[in-house]
Every structure is written in C-alpha cells, then in structure tokens.
Amino acid sequence: MKLNPVAQRFVLHWGKMGSKWGVNRTVAQTHALLYLAGKPLHAEEIVETLAVARSNVSNSLKELQSWNLIKVTHVLGDRRDHFETSTDVWELFKVVVRERKEREFDPTVAVLKECLASPDIDKEDSATRKRIKDTLVLMESLSSWGDEMLRLEPKTLMKIMKLGAKIQNLIRSK
Predict the structure, then answer these.
(1) Phi/psi at 22 (5° precision)
(2) Which of 68, 86, 151, 165 has CA atoms 20 to 30 A from the CA of 95?
C-alpha cells in the first residue's frame, strides 16, 4: 500500500503525537494507517507501508487489540489475519476514553478509597486526610460525568461541547 502525501503526513504526525500520549510511535502509526485505510489490512501490508520491522508491527497489533481499538478479521481466500479499526472517530474516542478510565482513573479512585478506609488514616494530619478526600470527591465526580458523556450520541455530545464553549465565552466576557 502506497500512502499519498497527505495520508503519509497524517500517519507520521499521529505517531509523533502517540509518543506524547504515552503510546509507542509505531502503535499510533499502525492505528492511523488502519483508520485511514478504512479496510482490513494484513500485517505484511502494514510492515511494507510503514517500513518498520515485522516484530514491531506484531507488538503494535497486540497492543491495539488490548486497547480494543482493532479487531482481527478474515478475508475470503486469504488465510492470514487481517486487522481493522472503526472509521467512526466518535466510536474511537469513546473506546480510548473508556480504556484510559479503566486503566488509569479507576485504579486511582480505588487507591484513594483504600487510603481513606485504612485504619492508618488517623495517623495522617487533618490537612492530608482532607486533600485525599477532596481528590476522591473530584475524581468520582469526573468519573460520573465521563460515564454520562460516553452514553450520549455523538450529535448530542457535540451540542454539549459547543454549548460549553459558548458558556465559557460568556463567563470570560463578564
């Protein structure tokens, strides 16, 4: 598969951004390629297109599967595994938010709860206890809000985002 200049720029930039988001560059590039292709690709096509090692692509595909961002599919007449991702940007956004919440946010909420439930919490000064409790309240509120946002249809979510921007502009202008 040969990438046209704009697609190549997108894939390269997505890889660069991936490292800023805490994702391996090749993982991000592989996902970007699958997203732009809009059709299932086998690993060798990805290797040739991205000009990276087969082992790097294999590891990237495993990582993307663990994030539920790609799935294995089969093409009639070809025994190889092919990989595809959603071409719906909102669906991808929701998957990433859900996965990050599950991997990063929820464990932090659990630890904060454990800290507050610990018999040793009384050994901490009141300011420390308050900060831990305030952090938990904030994180639970954000978690609840995030869960509600993920339940919305993209059209509704976009309206809320635009409304939020208008409200922010109104508040700033006063």
Answers:
(1) 85, 20
(2) 165
3-class secondary-structure state, position 14: helix
List helix spans (H) across the chain. 5-20, 25-37, 43-50, 54-66, 89-100, 106-117, 126-151, 154-173
Give the C-alpha distances (Å, rounded to integers) separating 123 from 30, 41, 116, 129: 49, 57, 11, 9
Domain ranges of the chain: 5-85, 89-157
pTM for the structure as a whole? 0.84
CATH fold label, 5-85: Arc Repressor Mutant, subunit A (1.10.10)
Q: What distance in Å separates the CA atoms of residue 112 and residue 137, rounded to the nearest whole number?
A: 10
What gap in Å lies between CA 6 and CA 26, rounded to an integer? 18
C-alpha 131/C-alpha 92 separation (Å) is 34
Retrieve residue 78's tokens: 């070809």
